[in-house]
Amino acid sequence: MNLELWSSLEFFWPQILLGSSFGILLSLIGALLVLRRQIFFGITLSQGVSLAVAISLYFGYDSPLFVPLLSLLILLPLVVFKKSRNKDDEAFLATLFLAFTALSQFLLNLGGNVTNHLMAAYFGDILTSPVSWDMQFFIPFLFALFAYSVLHNRFLSYSFDQDFSIVRGNNPIQLELMYFGLLIIFLSFSIHMFGSYFSMSQLVIPCFALLPWARSIKILYVGTGLISFLATILGFLLSFQSFPWGQEELHLPTTSTIILLLCFFALLSRMLYRSLGR
Amino acid sequence: MILKTANLQVGYRDVILENLEISLELGDIMVLTGPNGSGKSTLVKTLLGLLPPLGGSIFKSKDFDPGYVPQSKTIRSEFPLTIGSALKLQGGSAIQEAISICNLSGLENLLLSQASGGQLQRFLFARAISYNPNILFLDEPMDALDKDSRISLKDLLLNRAKKKKMAILLITHHPEIDWGSEITQTIVLGRNP
After folding, report:
1. How many CB pairs under 8 A join A and B?
2. How many structural domains comprise chain A?
């Protein structure tokens, strides 16, 4: 291990630890989103959370709870509305996705402190993320994590066969609100710290890569977590290295390197699966 | 009376069926038959509370405890779940008994995505009866089965209804199967104009 890499690891360990933990967490929660075939809805929610991040930055509210609460306020009515339509309307989601993006861009245009932060929220480099060890942040986060792990089997059962779950007495709106509410909370913490593209990619790509191979939910979860972890750690290590580029030295952007590694793993996994004639 | 309707109207936005008067006692077996699009599944979904009625009323007794065997296409068989793990996830307290009744012993480790139509149908049936329901709704449960399996499922249903005093509401496309004198009511629905 060269000196440059070692000193980087020493300096950026909070980003590495939190980045890989959030990556694993989002990949596990995203697996259910992929299984439910609601990927685009998840992506639209992510974009809505980015808007909440932009609003919090614009008004200078930097409390760790502000973004999750604002995100829930903006997005939970959308969950109810979507459920009441009882169909997946992609054009509607695309319209919302663009509206959230445009509104965020609008705040970006107003300048001030938003400019840098919002650019970071979208394209942000995970290395520059201001990692917070504030208990105000961790207590609600751990509470959400506990709630998700307790409710996981109900979410899974409902996603597998909604009608049967309803016949057995589950309330669909309640379950949708709880699942997407928790997803929004996790996304808001992750997007606030690591940007929306990092979060979205962890949500979708690891499960997409592993799904054809999975023979059980447990295997799917272990596999998605592993792919997410490998891509995040490898992405960090690669971005700490410098590569000669003409007369200069090139440093790869960490977030984009992680995303491209996730894409590479997904492509490799899918091609391998097909080449084995499965 | 475990289930009773009065002047019931069902449909999604437009009314498909109207003036439906249905009453089921424990131990009754009702067959709903009719061509595609006649509203059979819509009626069952309304009775189960999956769709709101467009008019009229549905009365369910206090001990109304339904089991539901939907068409096999409604479950997400692409989920990485085996027959055993799916039953563990969604089944009731009598899973082992249901596995044995439905001839699923030895198939617990079979992935749902690799199960045949008949095996999926038996899984759905096992899942429903694992709750020991007192009223069972079956939506075309015979479709994926060959003739012998249809007859054995029919026998299974009739035995179960008798033994557990369970009411059954069955949608079928196979009126050629002889249900004998066990059927208490048959409703033939016409095609919606």
Report:
1. 58
2. 1
